[in-house]
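User: Could you walk me through two proteins back to back? I'd like the raw sequence and the structure tokens for each, with a short line separating them so I can tell where one ends and the next begins.

Assistant: Of course. Protein one, sequence then structure:
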Amino acid sequence: MGGIGEPGGGPGPREGPAQLGATLPTFCWEQIRPHDLPGDKSHRAVYDISRWAQRHPGGSRLIGHHGGEDATDAFHAFHQDLNFVRKFLQPLLIGELAPEEPSQDGPQNAQLVQDFRALRQAAEDMKLFEASPTFFAFLLGHILAMEVLAWLIIYLLGPGWVPSTLTALVLAISQSQSWCLQHDLGHTSVFRKSRWNHVAQQFVMGQLKGFSAHWWNFRHFQHHAKPNVFHKDPDVTVAPIFLLGESSIEYGRKKRRYLPYNHQHLYFFLIGPPLLTLVNFEVENLAYMLVCMQWTDLLWAASFYSRFFLSYIPFYGVPGALLLFVAVRVLESHWFVWITQMNHIPKEIGHEKHRDWASSQLAATCNVEPSLFIDWFSGHLNFQIEHHLFPTMPRHNYHRVAPLVKALCAKHGLSYDVKPFLTALADIVGSLKKSGNVWLEAYLHQ
């Protein structure tokens, strides 16, 4: 149970952890709710993580996003080995909810929360959180095979336009699939031991992609904690370049016009898909490694650039190898933007609503109709609903848990949105256009 109590009626958050065996002080939701703040911080237990938040492996922001809330389901969603994690909680325990207090905060649907937890238990009983070593070995193997194939094309056919174009495409596919594999590892859904997942992610993200695993996790875990919530999800906090959801009305009413937002669906094609990984990610990633002193990640990234340019400079020279690198990054950037945003941009985007875990994830995600090709091409991110509800579940099991999720949604009248692939892509542009028009109307008529 996330949140901490205030002084008055019981010990405050700064009075230290409860002693083992001692009677725990009790708190009500009115005392807990005001601590929805970074630095103030799982069943009917109340914890004070204010002194520990900076040491939280997922970052202080991630845990801070759940301050003053029922964090039980978020805690389960993010942690693979609960027994290992719980030993860190005991020193942080300061009390528990008063007996008369409900386990969920005020407006939440208690029956939905209970049913979702039963669904998760059913998934665990079905062993859906156990990974297939063969599946992930194949993924890594086909990525490495494409890296070798790309080099062999140039080695055997020479650096002409046709071989170079083919090589760029193969490398872009390899890079895209590497995004998917490191994503699995970042969610600790491959190996039983978290440490093994983290080491493997550093290799895939660093040696195969040239990025920092810690930087990715810092961004991505916040996205999962509060998807489509401004100032908590980095993926939608993109103003003033693009306006999404509720920000369109806010900017319009305040007469803010940094760009022609009514045309953002058009300039999206110029500065969105082509440049995200080539410019934004490269700069942000490097800055993160330097500022946060992630020297191991920096060495891993350096190993990628060394390998890439040592492999292709003999054929192209420095300018040609650099051009090949840019071409690959631009191609993979298109894949990254369209695939990752087709499940989120068309959904509800706004400020914190303090929903329960299942409702918050369903409001911000949609699925894309599955097929063998779409599953592979998207890294199973077409099952975005299942992935967000159970982020540590190996992706090859999403199709097995999907019927259970559909049944839960049907029971509680929740939207389980599934779209054709091309419709999902078109909805990104449509959502940008709709938000731009909302901004323009508010801008002109307020």
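----
Protein two, same layout:
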Amino acid sequence: MVGEPVNLNEFQELARQALPKMYYDFYAGGAEDQYTLEENMEAFRRIMIRPRVLVDVSRIDLSTYVLGYNISAPILIAPTSLHKLAHPEGEVVTARAAAACKTIMALSFTSSCTLEEVASSCNAVRFFQIYVYKRRDLSALLVQRAERNGYKALVLTADSPRVGRKEADIKNKMTLPKLKNTERFLSLEASSDNGSNLAAVAKETKDASFCWKDIEWLSTITNMPILIKGLLTREDAIKAVKVGVAGIVVSNHGGRQLDYAPATITVLEEVVQAVGGRIPVFFDGGVRRGTDVFKALALGAQAVLIGRPIIYGLAAKGEYGVRQVIQMLKDELELTMALSGCPSVKDITRRHVRTERERLHSML
């Protein structure tokens, strides 16, 4: 590829060129047939924007609030693993880019930098993603460390009692490097006869019994608000409200867990309607354009989380690449808002999009 990338898909190609095949496949791949991975993006293409004209859009305001924190645009950095496989400085670089872009980064539980290193790298709002291990004391220790180091919320990932089957990782014999946050407490020596130890480590360490009633335990060990990530149904959204979480992230883990789970954009509205405004709903999965951000906001998301494109920017161009990725999405969202007659984020409404279901219904 010649010249500077002009969209997020071109960053993916730069990352492919920059990374060893094993690491690129680890970041880019999905579970089994990768249907959900691909459908996350394809489903956006079936939603049309309904622009309004002759609206004063001489000034566009992208800013919004997430859990009371003002950010420059409704675009957050999702928790993603092992940034040092993409860049020598890892999550520290990603955090600096988030601070420069005035947005929030959710640090992954399986980060390759410690949560203390990331916290000291810049002055910005940060969230911390948590899984729950069989050793609850280890999970509690990590939560306490996050709170002590100024993280502002927990992102509880709920869709991973086991690790999805990613065939590229098996073929590449991908194994986990040491995890800085847990290396003194947790062994990654689990063996597997398929060459990759990712699933074996998860099976030996993650608490597959963790369920709704245990969120009460999690809330007793922290003062941080808890967002629950990985919900795809009305039924689970209602349960999330009942157990008192501070928000929901509609997510299918980027298509990395259960293949043939629905594309997240196709179930976002179902979750939003079930919640009924009682807690905020955020969105994760398949966002590659500012028009995608606009569509998710129109269907009720308060903000979107970006995962793989951040990694691609990091691998291609380091901190500058991450900042470029975020800025590209912001620029595209700003243009979409202007051309759709929305001067501010709060002006984006359900009436600004038309789903495939509505299109098909109108043809009957």
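The radius of gyration is 20 Å.

Let me know if you want the two compared in more detail.
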